[in-house]
């Protein structure tokens, strides 16, 4: 593609830029910027200028708001109609027109001056225009040079500077660029709000470079090289005014194409002009913004890339124009609250496409490790395996068979099998001698009576062995337990440590299920929430199992019995009357 | 939301006056009999508040006792014998309370009682590990409480603090209760009292079950619950007067009956409100010193009633 269509597109930029300028106008200190000392500032100075980008626009904005408001408003209707026309044809026509009839262009400038005079604005001399244009250029460039430094990377800036050195833009370019300047602040504002948008445009820019490298780069360069083209400066100033005329001209139809381009230009000065290919954005937790992340994913799909390659640049711009014009802000906001908006919490990222949270995929690896590496953990075997195991072990250890069939969840660790009936671990492979065979049982005093009931089975003994595998499982596997499970485990451990586990095992009555435990704890908590205020702590200790305190019974009784006379007093009082 | 629920939902400004207010609401409005879980909770809450039985750490204590397993074989056998018969014919009770729950609570009580015996401050009233009738005493609590530990906590409150003398080895308090029943009946209904004594029917014979179980051996259970509402509010000594009311209610039948013993063995189904009305009415006729005895005999094992 040729350079010109793009440049032509830039011609019509004022249309959008003016519109937006009017809205942004109040923000700028136009008086300050018009001050003569400001205008003398060179391009290279790094002295502070309040919101550089906005200052640049304020100049043009004020100029036109004085002279051209009336005309501007008149022509908006026409513009809207023109938008509908096929852009390709018009685009080429306009381009030719522009090339061949340069005189028309000058005429337009002249008419603009007439217009200005008509509206009471004093005409400028060429020198003044040059000076002012210089000044504006410096303002326009400031953001480009400054912002990248302050915001993030120097990359965008470097790219630009390379372009500057390698290319020289033509007058036409610079002229068009000049008009584009007012758009810079607008673009900045939008981009500040929405990184996605910026990334979006950045991507498009990349493709643009591929397709028509010259066009875009040259137009971008225009800003930097415009200083050298002092001879054209008068024309620029004129063009500023001419923009009004242009809106009326048939070139309007191209205006549709321009703003997106301008925006692309302006975005080149922004910190986020980073090629996603150069940066690994996704994995970095601190720097990662949702927008960046999402965009990169989206654009990296081959489909999306291809779609851009196939598109004709002109069409691309025109279509983009609709998005990035006035409604661009609205679209921006909409995207923020869209259901597609990626969410990030900690290290987890929500992928709206797959509707899944991503980022902790490797967490599950631990479980594969349990099988492969950590043989201490309990194996959860499927039915098939268990049946096979049963079959092989049946012959070797017939004693276990009954217990195994009784409980379906057989636990195997190494070559040890949990004998669930007796709650002990026994070897699968061979008979083992009971190391506790000769040691008599030691019963706790209160438990002693019940111990008589114990059977003399060699498997029945202290079951403290049960707890180690259970708890080692905790530490190794790092499994998450609910509070109820933890309590249940505590309850089990208490039981086993007390030595009466055996009688308990024989008596399922005394074994509360975890759901029952959860329920009774829940009920107690509920009670405490509601009724704790009705109780003096002292009363609690009287009932306590462990912490019962010695209290004078007479005082307790005296206090306790008084209520028993309440009914009598009521009755006696009522009968007296 | 009833006014009772409203009252217990808010922290009491003054505990004693708020308790009095709650008692009066029990007397005047009463708690509804309902299958509703929330109503059940409310009743349990009211009972805990009235008896000042804190449920804090009740579950923890209960589980600590539960981990001890069944008590000694003799006790355990006694318990199991009785639990299997507890309200066998009451489908409502059977639906709500499992025999296992009864066994668990009574076993825990046996353990806790054994532990208490080793502490000197509880030696004055040696509550038995288990006596027949405890299962019936426990039944309304398990029936009315949303959780087993809460029922157990109330049960221990009842046994250790409210009617400890009833549960000693020789049932000393219950014996005194029977004597007081006899005295009260003689005061309230001399004719019936004479008729019964003429038939050699002493209060120990016809009154003991109702005295020892705080009337919970009578049917229906839901009416027993209402009686208990009142007794948690105004004192379980009222049970003696309620037994008098039971007798007075069937007095005409007793007079006509050829074998009054059969009538007295099991009182007919009753209406709690009627019994309460009668019982409260009797208070006016009871002399102050007898009333003192009624109050004291529940907790004082040294009372001697001729």
UniProtKB/TrEMBL annotation, chain A:
<dbReference type="GO" id="GO:1990334">
    <property type="term" value="C:Bfa1-Bub2 complex"/>
</dbReference>
<dbReference type="GO" id="GO:0005096">
    <property type="term" value="F:GTPase activator activity"/>
</dbReference>
<protein>
    <submittedName>
        <fullName>Uncharacterized protein</fullName>
    </submittedName>
</protein>
<dbReference type="GO" id="GO:0031578">
    <property type="term" value="P:mitotic spindle orientation checkpoint signaling"/>
</dbReference>
<feature type="region of interest" description="Disordered">
    <location>
        <begin position="447"/>
        <end position="479"/>
    </location>
</feature>
<feature type="region of interest" description="Disordered">
    <location>
        <begin position="31"/>
        <end position="62"/>
    </location>
</feature>
<dbReference type="GO" id="GO:0044732">
    <property type="term" value="C:mitotic spindle pole body"/>
</dbReference>
<feature type="compositionally biased region" description="Polar residues">
    <location>
        <begin position="41"/>
        <end position="62"/>
    </location>
</feature>
<feature type="region of interest" description="Disordered">
    <location>
        <begin position="188"/>
        <end position="214"/>
    </location>
</feature>
<feature type="compositionally biased region" description="Polar residues">
    <location>
        <begin position="456"/>
        <end position="479"/>
    </location>
</feature>
<dbReference type="InterPro" id="IPR034586">
    <property type="entry name" value="Bfa1/Byr4"/>
</dbReference>
<feature type="region of interest" description="Disordered">
    <location>
        <begin position="242"/>
        <end position="268"/>
    </location>
</feature>
Automatic annotation (TrEMBL), chain B:
<dbReference type="Pfam" id="PF00566">
    <property type="entry name" value="RabGAP-TBC"/>
</dbReference>
<keyword id="KW-0472">Membrane</keyword>
<dbReference type="InterPro" id="IPR035969">
    <property type="entry name" value="Rab-GAP_TBC_sf"/>
</dbReference>
<feature type="transmembrane region" description="Helical">
    <location>
        <begin position="227"/>
        <end position="248"/>
    </location>
</feature>
<keyword id="KW-0812">Transmembrane</keyword>
<dbReference type="GO" id="GO:1990334">
    <property type="term" value="C:Bfa1-Bub2 complex"/>
</dbReference>
<dbReference type="InterPro" id="IPR000195">
    <property type="entry name" value="Rab-GAP-TBC_dom"/>
</dbReference>
<comment type="similarity">
    <text>Belongs to the BUB2 family.</text>
</comment>
<protein>
    <recommendedName>
        <fullName>Rab-GAP TBC domain-containing protein</fullName>
    </recommendedName>
</protein>
<feature type="domain" description="Rab-GAP TBC">
    <location>
        <begin position="37"/>
        <end position="235"/>
    </location>
</feature>
<keyword id="KW-0131">Cell cycle</keyword>
<keyword id="KW-0963">Cytoplasm</keyword>
<dbReference type="GO" id="GO:0005096">
    <property type="term" value="F:GTPase activator activity"/>
</dbReference>
<keyword id="KW-1133">Transmembrane helix</keyword>
<dbReference type="GO" id="GO:0031030">
    <property type="term" value="P:negative regulation of septation initiation signaling"/>
</dbReference>
<keyword id="KW-0206">Cytoskeleton</keyword>
<dbReference type="GO" id="GO:0044732">
    <property type="term" value="C:mitotic spindle pole body"/>
</dbReference>
């Amino acid at each position: 593609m040729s350079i010109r269509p793009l440049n032509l597109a830039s011609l019509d930029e004022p249309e959008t830029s003016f519109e937006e300028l009017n809205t942004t106008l109040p923000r700028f200190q136009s008086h300050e910027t018009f001050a003569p000392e400001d205008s003398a500032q060179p391009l290279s100075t790094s002295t502070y200028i309040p919101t550089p980008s906005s200052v640049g626009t304020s100049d043009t904005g004020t100029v036109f708001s004085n002279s051209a408001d009336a005309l501007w408003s008149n022509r908006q209707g026409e513009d809207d109609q023109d938008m509908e026309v096929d852009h390709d044809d018009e685009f080429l026509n306009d381009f030719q027109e522009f090339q061949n009839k340069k005189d028309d262009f000058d005429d337009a400038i002249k008419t603009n001056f007439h217009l200005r005079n008509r509206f009471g604005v004093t005409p400028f001399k060429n020198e003044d225009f040059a000076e002012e244009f210089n000044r504006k250029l410096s303002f326009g460039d400031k953001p480009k040079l400054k912002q990248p430094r302050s915001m993030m990377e120097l990359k965008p800036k470097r790219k630009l500077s390379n372009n500057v050195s390698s290319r020289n833009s033509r007058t036409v370019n610079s002229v068009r660029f000049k008009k584009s300047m007012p758009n810079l602040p607008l673009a900045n504002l939008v981009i500040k709000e929405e990184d996605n948008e910026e990334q979006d445009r950045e991507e498009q820019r990349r493709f643009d470079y591929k397709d028509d490298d010259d066009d875009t780069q040259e137009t971008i360069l225009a800003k930097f090289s415009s200083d050298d083209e002092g001879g054209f400066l008068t024309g620029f100033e004129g063009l500023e005014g001419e923009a009004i005329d242009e809106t009326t001209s048939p070139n309007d139809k191209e205006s549709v194409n321009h703003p997106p381009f301008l925006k692309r230009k302006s975005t080149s000065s922004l910190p986020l002009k980073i090629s996603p290919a150069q940066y690994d954005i996704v994995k970095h937790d601190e720097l990662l913004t949702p927008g960046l992340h999402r965009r990169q994913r989206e654009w990296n799909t081959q489909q999306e890339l291809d779609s851009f390659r196939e598109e004709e640049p002109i069409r691309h711009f025109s279509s983009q124009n609709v998005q990035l014009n006035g409604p661009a802000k609205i679209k921006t906001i909409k995207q923020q609250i869209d259901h597609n908006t990626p969410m990030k919490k900690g290290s987890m990222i929500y992928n709206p496409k797959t509707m899944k949270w991503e980022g902790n995929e490797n967490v599950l690896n631990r479980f594969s490790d349990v099988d492969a590496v950590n043989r201490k953990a309990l194996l959860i075997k499927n039915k098939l395996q268990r049946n096979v195991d049963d079959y092989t072990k049946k012959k070797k250890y017939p004693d276990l068979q009954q217990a195994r069939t009784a409980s379906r969840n057989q636990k195997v660790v190494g070559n040890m099998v949990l004998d669930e009936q007796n709650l002990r671990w026994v070897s699968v492979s061979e008979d083992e001698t009971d190391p506790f065979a000769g040691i008599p049982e030691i019963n706790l005093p209160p438990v002693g009576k019940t111990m008589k009931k114990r059977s003399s089975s060699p498997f029945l003994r202290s079951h403290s062995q049960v707890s180690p595998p259970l708890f080692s499982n905790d530490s190794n596997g790092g499994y998450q337990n609910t509070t109820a499970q933890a309590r249940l485990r505590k309850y089990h451990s208490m039981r086993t440590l007390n030595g009466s586990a055996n009688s308990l095992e024989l008596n399922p009555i005394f074994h509360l299920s975890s759901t029952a435990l959860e329920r009774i704890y829940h009920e107690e908590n509920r009670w405490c929430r509601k009724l704790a205020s009705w109780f003096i702590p002292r009363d609690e200790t009287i009932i306590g199992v462990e912490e019962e305190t010695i209290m004078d019974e007479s005082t307790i009784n005296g206090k306790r019995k008084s209520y028993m006379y309440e009914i009598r007093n009521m009755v006696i009082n009522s009968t007296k009357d | 939301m009833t006014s009772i629920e409203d009252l217990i939902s808010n922290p009491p400004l003054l505990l004693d006056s708020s308790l009095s207010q709650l008692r009066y609401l029990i007397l005047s409005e009463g708690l509804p009999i309902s299958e509703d879980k929330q109503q059940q909770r409310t009743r349990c809450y009211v009972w805990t508040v009235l008896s000042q039985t804190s449920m804090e750490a009740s579950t923890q204590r209960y589980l600590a006792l539960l981990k001890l397993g069944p008590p000694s074989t003799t006790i355990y056998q006694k318990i199991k014998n009785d639990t299997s018969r507890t309200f066998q014919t009451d489908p409502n009770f059977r639906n709500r309370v499992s025999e296992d729950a009864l066994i668990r609570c009574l076993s825990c009580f046996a353990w806790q009682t054994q532990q208490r015996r080793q502490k000197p401050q509880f030696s004055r009233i040696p509550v038995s590990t288990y006596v027949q009738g405890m299962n019936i005493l426990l039944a309304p609590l398990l029936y009315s409480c949303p959780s087993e530990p809460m029922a157990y906590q109330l049960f221990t409150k009842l046994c250790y603090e409210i009617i400890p003398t009833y549960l000693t080895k020789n049932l000393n308090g219950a014996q005194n209760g029977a004597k007081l029943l006899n005295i009260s009946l003689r005061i309230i209904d001399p004719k019936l009292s004479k008729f019964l004594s003429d038939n050699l029917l002493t209060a120990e014979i016809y009154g003991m079950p109702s005295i020892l179980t705080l009337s919970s051996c009578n049917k229906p259970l839901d009416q027993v619950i209402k009686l208990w509402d009142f007794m948690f509010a105004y004192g379980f000594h009222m049970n003696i007067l309620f037994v008098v009311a039971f007798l007075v209610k069937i007095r005409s039948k007793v007079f006509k009956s050829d074998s009054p013993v059969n009538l007295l063995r099991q009182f007919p189904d009753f209406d709690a409100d009627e019994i309460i009305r009668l019982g409260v009415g009797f208070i006016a006729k009871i002399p102050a010193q007898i009333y003192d005895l009624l109050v004291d005999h529940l907790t004082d094992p040294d009372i001697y009633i001729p």
